[in-house]
Backbone:
């Protein structure tokens, strides 16, 4: 158990070891992310599994350093050409309002010509000015631009009116969102008693935000069945699907099954959900989750939604939570922007259209087909829907209410990352 308080002093050997780990770890992580397109969270988890001697404070330090490094990589490494330890230090300064002892030790090792001040309270343009003041006298210094913080393809395939706001939003870590399965007020009260600050969304009472980094599993072990960790944008998908009691739904790309469980809860467990995915291990985990949450009417089945023959039966509703580029998740997965491309977006859009064309046969006449993707690129969202509707005039947009605002839509909704705040979702 780690009893360290935020202001307790760590032994010098600990903070020195932290610096040594970063100097060894970050260059290799950066290479694997950018050259092999491997996700940073999986790489970091693998590193921690093979270094069991690292405790919770070491894990917090490394997690903060790694994700701040990738969040600000476009400025610190791309423009300023900083080495890995200095880029980590500056990234953390940009993210936080107080530098922990290990980062102050790292500052001394970097031998900088200026004192590093935490910039977390500033807006993104003020942060750019502060960095320019620190590094502006360097030879060959280039001005820091917002679009340095994303892939060069970004502006060409995202709504140009939203690009700057998107980029600024990506530089802020969103809260953790949970979905209360019942009695959200009682759940908030229980968290308050554990000194966990939480807030219900003003329009979606069951959507509750919690500060990122809080381990609810450890803090609320007796309440695990009463909530599910699920981003607010993902919760909107279930609200928009709006399944009725007694209905039969198919979640054809179910993944970990968060939306399958939500559909079942919305039907008050009076109905059926078929959850399918190409990955058999993930379906086995979903079965365990369903048992844990008392969802008896979720059936799982392996299915390749791109190429397998569609089922002969039809459903009241089919949910296509399609595999996508994930460009809407860059606030939560800052490394993802450095391992993606416009080509991947095009490939995703092609695959998504194949999935829709394949599963549409399973929507009963008068039924509902819901397409969702955690992205903000036009080829995977409005352009894809236009292509599908042009090919299939027997389908039409069905207007629904935006769960976040209560306003009517025309049957399409792009949730931007700052609107939750959370993931971007179409």
Residues:
């Amino acid at each position: 158990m780690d009893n360290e308080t935020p202001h307790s002093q760590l032994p010098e050997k600990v903070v020195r070891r932290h610096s040594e780990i970063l100097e060894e770890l970050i260059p290799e992580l950066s290479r694997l992310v950018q050259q092999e397109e491997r996700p940073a969270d999986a790489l970091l988890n693998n590193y921690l599994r093979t270094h069991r001697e690292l405790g919770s404070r070491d894990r917090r330090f490394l997690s903060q350093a790694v994700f701040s490094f990738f969040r600000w990589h476009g400025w610190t490494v791309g423009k300023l050409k900083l080495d890995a330890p200095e880029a980590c230090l500056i990234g953390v300064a940009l993210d936080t309002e107080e530098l922990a002892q290990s980062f102050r030790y790292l500052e001394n090792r970097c031998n900088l010509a200026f004192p590093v001040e935490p910039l977390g309270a500033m807006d993104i343009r003020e942060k750019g000015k502060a960095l320019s003041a620190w590094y502006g006298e360097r030879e060959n210094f280039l001005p820091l631009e917002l679009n340095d913080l994303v892939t060069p393809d970004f502006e060409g395939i995202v709504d140009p009116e939203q690009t700057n706001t998107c980029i600024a939003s990506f530089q802020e870590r969103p809260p953790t969102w949970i979905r209360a399965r019942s009695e959200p007020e009682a759940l908030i009260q229980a968290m308050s008693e554990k000194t966990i600050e939480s807030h219900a969304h003003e329009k979606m009472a069951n959507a509750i935000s919690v500060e990122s980094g809080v381990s609810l599993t450890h803090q609320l072990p007796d309440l695990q069945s009463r909530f599910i960790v699920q981003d607010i944008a993902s919760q909107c998908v279930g609200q928009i699907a709006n399944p009725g009691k007694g209905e039969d739904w198919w979640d054809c790309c179910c993944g970990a099954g968060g939306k399958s469980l939500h559909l079942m809860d919305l039907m008050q467990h009076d109905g059926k959900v078929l959850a399918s995915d190409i990955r058999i291990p993930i379906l086995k985990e979903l079965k365990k989750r369903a048992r844990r949450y008392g969802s008896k009417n979720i059936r799982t089945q392996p299915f390749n939604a791109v190429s397998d023959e569609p089922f002969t039966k039809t459903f009241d509703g089919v949910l296509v939570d399609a595999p996508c580029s994930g460009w809407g998740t860059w606030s939560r997965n800052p490394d993802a922007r450095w391992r993606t491309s416009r080509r991947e977006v095009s490939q995703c859009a092609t695959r998504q259209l194949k999935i829709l064309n394949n599963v549409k046969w399973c929507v009963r006449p008068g039924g509902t087909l819901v397409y969702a993707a955690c992205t903000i690129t036009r080829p995977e969202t409005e352009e894809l829907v236009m292509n599908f509707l042009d090919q299939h005039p027997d389908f039409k947009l069905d207007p629904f209410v935006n769960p976040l605002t209560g306003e009517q839509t025309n049957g399409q909704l792009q949730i931007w990352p700052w609107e939750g705040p959370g993931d971007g979702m179409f």
About this structure: The mean pLDDT is 93. Strands lie at 176-180, 198-200, 207-210, 227-229, 248-251, 272-277, 298-302, 315-321, 363-372. The CA atoms of residues 184 and 206 lie 6 Å apart.
